[in-house]
TrEMBL record:
InterPro entries reported for this sequence: A/G_AdeGlyc_MutY, DNA_glycosylase, Endonuclease-III-like_CS2, HhH-GPD_domain, HhH_base_excis_C, HhH_motif, Hlx-hairpin-Hlx_DNA-bd_motif, MIG/MutY
Gene that produces this protein: mutY
Signal sequence coordinates: none
Domain of life according to the entry: Bacteria
Name of protein: Adenine DNA glycosylase
Domain Helix-hairpin-helix DNA-binding motif class: from-to ranges: 106-125
Any one GO molecular function term: purine-specific mismatch base pair DNA N-glycosylase activity
Any one Gene Ontology BP term: mismatch repair
EC number from the UniProt entry: 3.2.2.31
A Pfam short name: HHH
Cofactor binding remark: Binds 1 [4Fe-4S] cluster.
Lineage: Bacteria, Pseudomonadati, Bacteroidota, Cytophagia, Cytophagales
Amino acid sequence: MQDFVNKIVSWYEKNHRQLPWRETHDPYRIWLSEIILQQTRVEQGRPYYEQFTTEHPNIQSLAEANEESILRLWQGLGYYSRARNLHKCAKTVMAEHGGHFPKKFEDLKKLPGIGPYTAAAIASFAFGEKVACVDGNVYRLLSRFFGISDDIASPKGQKVFFEKAQSLIPSDRPDLFNQATMEMGAMVCTPKKPNCMYCPLQAGCFAFEHNKQEELPVKTKKVKVKKRYLHYLIIKHEGEVLMKKRDTKGIWAGLYDFPLIEGKEAIVDFDDLLENTPNFNGGKFLLGQISQQYKHVLTHQQLFVRFFEISTKNQAAFQQVKEAFQSHSFPLEETMGIPKPILIDQYLKEHQLEGVE
Ligand code: SF4
């Protein structure tokens, strides 16, 4: 056990990546980085971390920001419930803890959007508490090295791994141990093709000895991927366009998108689309262009998206369709500043929306 700890810490001290959130003990910055990096690669998350800490250098600033500006900053990271919880948590820390994060693992877990892993990261990196951070990298490393075959997707398996990590963590510098196990899992004991030849843990590693790297860790939960066909209507009238705020449920809650028609299959023709659109008098609208189909892959869904750009000179028709879709009209030049799903943002960046002649 001690050998495992010594080797991994010594490897970390020589080989770890320099990352801005590792240079600080500020719980606000550590928390921010951990929330951003959930289900996000370091290279992708880093500019977001820098943007957030520049615009909101402390928790008070974040708590006082409005939700739309936070969603705008978050745009492109996906899983927008994380951004909403980020804001909720900042407000809770201000209102209930005088602007200071609680120092204990057990108290941190009670804050919105903070699960056991994030609570452990804040408690150990900011406050030196001896509590193990077990993320996907650590599950993999421990599973392979110790030959633990419990399912990492099950609560029982997660308990086994947490207890294992907790039994290894040293009293002095628990933060260093946590950083080292996560970094080793991310950089050496990778999901595919782990770098066993250069791994300091090779001697004594169960998976290496038994050639079980591909079988460990065990994760039985299957993700069912649903296909969805989304058809967006970009409806313009005299320099304005209709957009709609998504309600509080779903992957894009709180963001804006265009009036949407979802079909059981892809629709490529405007007339076919109209047949699927009650209360919409297509005769008063001019078809501009129909986009290619875009594919957007999420964890549980594959989205196939097409944009139909249409316009009208008829104020009454525009008003009618605005009400039918319960949408709002915005000046075209304001659309870039509105928080929206990344695929819509990309479309708008690629296609200049033009007003009605
Ligand atoms: S020897 Fe290979 S499988 Fe074992 S811990 Fe190192 S990288 Fe992972």
